[in-house]
Fold each of these.
Amino acid sequence: AINRALRALGELCVEGVATTIPADIAILQHDDFRNNEHSTKWVEEVLNLTDVSATSAERADDEPKIKRELDVEVNGKRFSVAMWVPESAGAPAAAGGGGAARRRSGGGASGGGSGSGDVTAPMQGTIVKINVAVGDEVEAGDAIVVLEAMKMENNVTAEKAGTVTEIRVSEGDSVGGGDVVAVIE
């Protein structure tokens, strides 16, 4: 396992940021580590990394950069990601082995089905903000509520335009994935 880790670290190329790869390699090559003679205090008491420095972040900075944009989908939610990459870098690969990324019907994080008036929570979480009131006119894609899940705030959006006829949650309520938070007609 140590040899596989060393081989992987030796092949790993991270550009644009400094890394601790040289220190990781030094630890894996140390006899105490290989012979399982290290402890939780081993790094501070025994290991000497004075001759080891972090990898430089300058390598990638030498080459001119171009802006690339990519649409990604995470847990049913679409994001447009912009990144600056070296000119020599190839185009980002599409997920799933090539071809166009598939689009889900409905397109938003509401998960209420194709054009349904039910606005549903895409995952379990806590409602932290309600952006609409009963009687408000909304457009498809408008944020109806903000759901906090895994320390991230997610907009739960309307799949269709219409009038908000019901709001079934209050700020601070816990909801499960698929729970209806509002109705639009």
Amino acid sequence: MVKKLGIFIFALLLLSSFFTPVQAEDKVINIFSFHAEGCLYCAKEEAFFQELEKTDKNLKIYRFEIAYDKEGQAVAKKVEDLLGIKISTVPYVIIGRQSIIGFTEGITDKEILEAIEYNRTHVVRDIVGEMLGVAVPFTGDEDDPKETVIRLPFFGEVKAKSVSLPLLAVVIGTLDGFNPCAMWVLLLLISMLIHIKEKWKMWTLGLIFLFTSAVMYFFFMLSWLNITMLFGSVFILRLIIGAVAVGGGTINIRNGLKKDDGCEVVDSTQRKKLRQRIQEISDQPTFILAIVGIMGLAITVNLVELLCSAGLPIVFTQVLALNQVTYWEKIGYLLLYVSFFLLDDIVVFVIAMKTFELTGISTKYAKYSHLIGGAIMIILGILMVVKPGWLMFNFS
């Protein structure tokens, strides 16, 4: 009897061991680190990981070199296809379903620790681990990611993370569209077009000019975004862009404190040539030639205009490169920026064409445009160097 009771108790203890929940601190977390040889920030992150491995024995860090190692590149490609992401900036870390790009001491290290803690205390599928065969296939339901929710008028409850970059795109894009160079070129165009007798030609040429300008602006920003995504985690590039932003902002404020009007980049001789060119285009006997001419003019004028207003779009693309969003989301934010940049011009164009009341850009308009734009550029430039985490909306 005693022997049977002993066997029964032993069986109960053995069975209970299968149902004892695993403590959070005992849960093994897989970390997938993609790095490149010679990358300074990758080296800093690796030093952090080595210290972390000493204190946390339940971490498994899988390292993949993707600059020269073919196997690492192949794994990165599989992960990109699996998650629908682009691993174009290193270091790039994946923990559970969270991606962490770049490495800044005091910011990224905290994000990594928070991601580890979240994956330990929540049910999160290790989809990359499953693909690589280092995690047990997941069955069941995952915990919903915890996100901060705020209430906005007319929009109701929205996720805080989703409102920051769109709001920045709208504000900076709108402000950029009102820069004196853009407005001067637009008003000059309108002053030439209102002499065309056929209204449909007048509207068509004007809108083609605006949309061609927007397309060119978009591709300029896209090109710069690709550069910053490749080298955006390098401190020296951030330092250069920050210095350019502060310098450009200072020049804008200096110009705003002057009493000059119009656009300083385009001098009076260039303005005269532009007037003549627009007049020649509007006088073309064949409308197709006029369209080609107006598109060519838009490209030429915007090359000059970029010298006047490149500061804000360059700063915005750097902010995009710093934030952990997918490549296609970045494209979406660029389109949003350019849409509001274009919206300013369309509104002014429609109002002016309807009223024919053209007074040019006043000194007061140019002054405040320079002052506001300059102040924003200086603030963003300083944050880019001193507090890059704030540009990633991480204020901790």
Amino acid sequence: MATGGWGVLVAIVLALLWVALAYNRLRVLHHRVETAYGQIDVQLKRRHDLIPNLVEVARAHMVHEAATLEAVIRARCIAQGAASTARRHPGQPGAMGALAMAEQSLNEQLGQFRLQAEAYPQLQDDERMLQLREALGSTENRMGLARQAYNSQVADYNRRAGRFPDLLLARLIGFAHLDLLQAAEGVPAQGEPRGVSDPEVAAAALQASRPCAS
């Protein structure tokens, strides 16, 4: 084989080797994002499971606050729908944006509930309520840590997927940019892109919330 032919063959082999290595790097980083999001999902499920118990205990005392309690349940239902969509599309902009907004709304309703609950001393002293509040607080703390770990993995993945020449392969085979998960308080997470959304994923999040409409 002529020298030129060997050169072409070596170039092809090296190119294929680079593609294989780059793909494996991206796949490993993407899997780490999915694994990290799984820890968020565990804490979200626990939080959403605790809220009906919280409302049930409060209902016996807050007999004149039915609207507040129903608002909490409705916000929890919407948050569950958003979490279900995010579970199927971890990191996708539409899913992460809908989840952050739903959790922010749920936090606001829980804040209103806690504010009104202060007017009921017997509820404040109820052992079941104390246990549920402690469990919710612990879950929210763990979710904050899980969110930080997830955002760190997303940042690592996005750096690799957005770096030339890996960027070319990422675009070619569908390793899309992933979104950070903003804090439930509504403050954008550092480095989160704005105005980015996947219409299909956003539509799925909207569809998931419809059974909660009053």
